[in-house]
Specification:
Radius of gyration: 34 Å
Pfam family, one: Myosin_head
Largest sheet: 3 strands, antiparallel
Organism: Rhipidura dahli
Keywords: Actin-binding, ATP-binding, Calmodulin-binding, Motor protein, Myosin, Nucleotide-binding, Repeat
Strand order of the largest sheet: 1-2-3
Helix content: 55-70%
CATH architecture of the domain at 5-138 and 174-193: Up-down Bundle
Shape: elongated
Family: Belongs to the TRAFAC class myosin-kinesin ATPase superfamily. Myosin family.
Distance between the termini: 113 Å
Number of strands: 6
GO molecular function: actin filament binding; ATP binding; calmodulin binding; microfilament motor activity
Number of helices: 13
Mean pLDDT: 82
Length: about 350
């Protein structure tokens, strides 16, 4: 119910994670169709970059305004910080304040004078401005750091490297907000360098009890996790895509022309394969480097045909091996019979 500086930076991190989710799934999904030359109707979805910019912009962002207040000489309070936000962010469509000059909120009695509200991706959140400046300062006196660095315990000494007299820095230590912002930037860089897989967990109720399904709670989670946009983009596009080479390698045994070896380009082989299987044209599209399959049922059909074909091939291999084994045994017995007969005739 009461959100302060800690909840503010947690929600900022959630916004950044939602932004990278949008970039790596929804945006990449649509860009791939354009890149592959697939006919595609653009699906509009909300990009929360505007909310991230409201918080982290180096000039007009809330964190920048907070740092500026912490470093400004003179009397600095939480109220002066809120006044500064009202001056800089008043016209932003995702920022609301009772003291804002924007007439929309002058009659909003649900918003106290000492609070501001941000319309996050997941919904509106009201923050109590009290304590923002003190919590952001996060100052540790230099002599305390030096005293800790001189401790005989190796772990304590390692936790306070700034206390080393050889590394004394007269500059003001970074604020908590700027440190958190740098940590989030490092996290985003690590995620972009990887290939993340998302697991979305949905709570059916707040009591963690069995057989209780709170529809409003589930719908709220589906909305703020971005699942609706993801489903809309997926349903409007293609459920499965794969480069031509591995696709042909996996399903080539389903067509006599491509089995066991296809000598031409992989795309031509996939076209021959799909024509042979008589898959409806509306169920797939050929991109520049990939085959796109619209409906999962088509993919399941291919997998079932492949499974049956593998069983048939295994039976064929087993049949040929048994025939070879029996013929080898027969030829060996025939040769032995000739030797025995020749020796018997000689004896007789």
């Amino acid at each position: 119910q009461d959100n302060s500086f800690e909840q503010f930076i947690i929600n900022y991190c959630n916004e950044k994670l939602q932004q990278i989710f949008i970039e790596l799934t929804l945006k990449e999904e649509q860009e791939e169709y354009i890149r592959e030359g697939i006919e595609w109707t653009h699906i509009e979805y909300f990009n929360n970059a505007i909310i991230c910019d409201l918080i982290e912009n180096n000039q007009t962002g809330i964190l920048a305004m907070l740092d500026e207040e912490c470093l400004r000489p003179g009397t600095v309070t939480d109220d002066t910080f809120l006044e500064k936000l009202n001056q800089v962010c008043a016209t932003h469509q995702h920022f609301e304040s009772r003291m804002s000059k924007c007439s929309r909120f002058l009659n909003d009695t649900s918003l106290p004078h000492s609070c501001f509200r941000i319309q996050h991706y997941a919904g509106k959140v009201m923050y109590q401005v009290e304590g923002f400046v003190d919590k952001n300062n996060d100052l540790l006196y230099r002599d305390l750091s030096q005293a800790m660095w001189k401790a005989s315990h190796s772990l304590i000494k390692a936790l306070f490297p700034e206390g080393n007299p050889a590394k004394i820095n007269l500059k003001r230590p970074p604020t908590a907000g700027s440190q958190f912002k740098a940590s989030v930037a490092t996290l985003m860089k690590n995620l972009q360098d990887k290939n993340p897989n998302y697991i979305r967990c949905i709570k059916p109720n707040e009591k963690k009890a069995a057989d209780i399904f709170n529809e409003a709670l589930v719908c709220h989670q589906i909305r703020y996790l971005g699942l609706l946009e993801n489903v809309r983009v997926r349903r409007a596009g293609y459920a499965f895509r794969q480069p031509y080479e591995p696709c042909l390698e996996r399903y080539k045994m389903l067509c006599k022309q491509t089995w066991p070896h296809w000598r031409g380009p992989a795309r031509a082989g996939v076209e021959v394969l799909f024509n042979e299987l008589r898959i409806p044209e509306e169920e797939f599209s050929f991109g520049r480097s990939k085959i796109f399959i619209r409906n999962p049922r088509t993919l399941f059909k291919l997998e079932d045909l492949r499974k049956q074909r593998l069983e048939d091939l295994a039976t064929l291999i087993e049949k040929i091996y048994r025939g070879w084994k029996c013929r080898t045994r027969f030829l060996l017995m025939k040769r032995c019979q000739i030797v025995i007969a020749s020796w018997y005739r000689r004896y007789a």
